[in-house]
Amino acid sequence: MKTNDFDFELPENLIAQTPIKNRDQSKMLVLDRKTGEIEHKKFNEIINYLENGDTLVLNDTKVLPARLYGVKSQTNALIEILMLKEVKEDTWECLTKPAKRVKIGTIISFGNGRLKAECIDVKEEGIRIFKLIYKGILYEILDELGEMPLPPYIHEKLEDKDRYQTVYAKNLGSAAAPTAGLHFTNKLLEEIKEKGVNIVYITLHVGLGTFRPVNEEEITNHKMHSEFYMMSEETANILNKTKQNHKKIISVGTTSTRTLETIYNLYGEFKSCNGWTDIFIYPGYEFKAIDCLITNFHLPKSTLVMLVSAFASKEKIMNAYKEAINNNYRFFSFGDSMFIK
Questions:
Q1: What pLDDT is attached to residue 281?
Q2: What pLDDT shows up at residue 159?
Q3: What pLDDT is recorded for position 254?
Q4: Measured between alpha carbons, how far is 160 from 202 in angstroms, rounded to an integer?
Q5: Residue 274: which region, alpha, beta or left (left: phi > 0; alpha: psi -120 to 50)?
Q6: Residues 6+ apart with CB under 8 A from 82
Q7: C-alpha closest to that of 293 among 228, 337, 335
Q8: What's residue 209's pLDDT?
Q9: Is the peptide bond preceding residue 19 cis, with omega within 30 degrees of 0?
Q10: In the chain, what are the domains?
Q11: What pLDDT, on a 0 to 100 scale, did the predictor assign at position 228?
């Protein structure tokens, strides 16, 4: 299967640069994955597709203000890093630009030395491992010095940092937002609960694996980076009960989906656990954990468009994307939503 099979033409003006005023007023394209039938709705109408006893699964990861701009202590050269994941205490894997200027022993200073990072290992694809040196609480320092790691296709400045967080974001550790969840408001979640729908949380800290482009011609040659996930006993019990009662599990986003499918593949059920996943889902994959998917519109040739194509078929997804483009849907992180039932 070729990466080019998942390419499509997208007018640049449809790449959402800013979030809309009201989260739950984004457009929602509803796709029936059996028939290919398409409906056009507003996101707050998602409640009409959820039934008593169904379970909605949300990723409660919280985005770190993890993009930092500093200078090399040795030469004052400007260096940008994006903190991806903590590999052990105060030791972080970071995407580094320009990476060729950073070698083992290089020290980068941020905020006039408030935070320093010493390179202790060199990896491929611009990745460096840094030991962080600071006094105080790291997350407070990042809040002061760091920027939200908006994707490179967003050129507008984000006025309100919270708009790149879900309203239920809790566990700090992501390098990118689980964007399908950005459409929910607290009010909408309350209304969903009142309808008798279970709302449960998992955590997957979104890292490089999610937004790294596929550069291989054959998709099977693409290597996913691993990301950390957690599931509580309470969540596992509710999900297992949902399955037993033959009700629907609705996954919010590709990150929730990858977590749920990873756990179900490992144990044949849902289980309280944590670990690292590098699961790569593309057409031919047989879904075991989820019944429906809420997602955004993804980049051409990305692992995300491959995942949704595995869920609904490439033909139906490409047709739905064409329909979305014809109807001026907004694409990517701050864009509109899609419900695949």
A1: 96
A2: 85
A3: 96
A4: 25
A5: beta
A6: 66, 67, 68, 94, 95, 96, 149, 175
A7: 337
A8: 64
A9: no
A10: 3-63+160-340 (3.40.1780.10), 67-145 (2.40.10.240)
A11: 93
Return d(Cα 180, Cα 294) in angstroms, integer: 6
Q: Can you give the pLDDT at residue 307?
A: 97
295: which 2 tokens? 């997602």
What pLDDT sits at residue 261? Answer: 98
DSSP code of 164? G
* Residues 284, 306: Cα–Cα separation, whole Å: 10
CA 176 – CA 163 distance, rounded (Å) = 12
Spell out, as residue ranges, where the chain has pLDDT lower than 70: 209-212
Contact criterion met (CB below 8 Å) for 199 and 47: no
CA-based nearest residue to 47, from 250, 237, 231: 250
Q: Say if residue 124 is exposed, middle or buried (CB neighbours under 10 Å; 0-12, 13-18, 19+).
A: exposed
End-to-end CA distance of the chain: 25
Q: Give the dihedral sign, CA 148/23/257/260.
A: positive
Answer positive or negative: Cα dihedral of 277, 281, 284, 288: positive
What is the DSSP secondary structure assignment for residue 144, as one 8-state letter?
H
Do the beta carbons of residue 29 and residue 338 sit within 8 Å?
Answer: yes
- What is the C-alpha separation between 249 and 240, in angstroms, rounded? 10
List, for residues 26-42, the tens digit of each pLDDT value: 999 999 999 999 999 99
Dist. CA 91–CA 118, nearest whole Å: 9
